[in-house]
Amino acid sequence: MNNEQNTRWGILYCPKGRSSKQRERIQRVLDDRHVAYDFVQSESADSVERLMSMLIHNGYKTIIVVGGDSALNDAVNCLMQVEMQVRNEIALGVIPNGLVNDFARYWDFKEGNLEQTIDWLLKRRVRKVDLGCIRYQNKQGERCHRYFLNCVNVGLIADIMNLRRQTRSLLGSKTLAFIVSIFLMIFHRMEYKMHVKINSDVVDRKVMTMCVGSGPGYGQTPSAVPYNGMLDVSLVYHAEMLQVFAGLWLLITGRFLNHRSVHPYRTRQVEVVEAKHAMVGVDGRLLGTPVGSYQISVEQEVINFLIPD
């Protein structure tokens, strides 16, 4: 790339639906601000990493993901596959456009405030942020790892993700699928036998859900900071059904840690020795059920992220 091309934005657009109105609106705001850019659009979740890799290898130094937490997750995992020297020259930004935009919301990027978001991105204020990493073995016996900006969920919340995916394939509507998933939760497994090591503590008991967050964790790790080299952990022990709904209310209102069944920790690493039948979700996307033990750790300040002024 020449110097002029070095300043061009590579924009990876992940549409929420079939409408092209949001894309046209983004392009109009960019054109009004005389931003040089090239657009690529993902056809599916599987194509995000392929397109991200293409933008990286074509030399773009500013890559903007128009999408939600799952699309950002794909982007950072692609970035972590390239050499550090290449990665350090790239700044990643986000225009929130997903079902869940938790990491964008942490930085005060709001979906309904497109002009403000682009003005902030244009200032190119860069902050190095942490990535969490889960290392595990899959059902084929392969050793795998997956990075995350936001959180890993183990247990009930990951199960709700799975229920939502299954009901969405039947019902078609994301919102309806989520409501039905919450309702089905009443009849679903509510506890999982877990053996977890956090700092010097050993938890060996039934647990409803565990969230390990480098970021806000969809409200489950609200005190997590994505640049302090630490992970926040929220373990939720057994609660009666009324307490579950009380917990959901506290989650919605940002007071999740006040629930008496929530036990918070701060650590650099979590070792899950055993979590029988407990599904795992990473940044809102289902990972499945790892085989055997697995570890969740943090790598400090490894991604250049564009933040507000």
Characterise this structure.
This protein is α+β, with helices and mostly antiparallel strands and 309 residues long. It is 31% helix and 34% strand. It contains 10 helices and 16 strands. The protein has helices at 3-6, 21-32, 47-57, 69-79, 84-87, 102-106, 114-122, 156-171, 174-185, 241-252; strands at 9-13, 37-41, 62-67, 91-96, 126-137, 143-148, 151-155, 192-198, 201-207, 209-213, 231-236, 262-267, 269-275, 280-282, 285-288, 291-306. The strands form 2 sheets. Strands 1, 2, 3, 4, 5, 6, 8, 9, 13 and 16 form a 10-stranded mixed beta sheet that branches. A 6-stranded antiparallel beta sheet has the order 12-11-10-7-14-15. Helix 3 (47-57) crosses helix 4 and helix 8 (156-171) packs across helix 9. The longest helix has 16 residues, at 156-171. The chain is elongated and about 60 Å long. Mean pLDDT is 85; it is low at 167-172 and 249-253.
Summarize the biggest pleated sheet: 10 strands, mixed
- What general outline do the C-alpha atoms trace? elongated
How much of the residues is beta strand, in percent?
25-35%
User: Residue-averaged pLDDT, rounded?
Assistant: 85
State the order of secondary-structure elements, H for helix, E for strand. HEHEHEHHEHHEEEHHEEEEHEEEEE
Please tell me how large the radius of gyration is. Answer: 20 Å
**Which blocks of ≥5 consecutive residues have pLDDT under 50?**
167-172, 249-253
Proportion of helical residues: 25-40%
Topology, number of strands:
16
Distance between the termini: 28 Å
Number of helices: 10
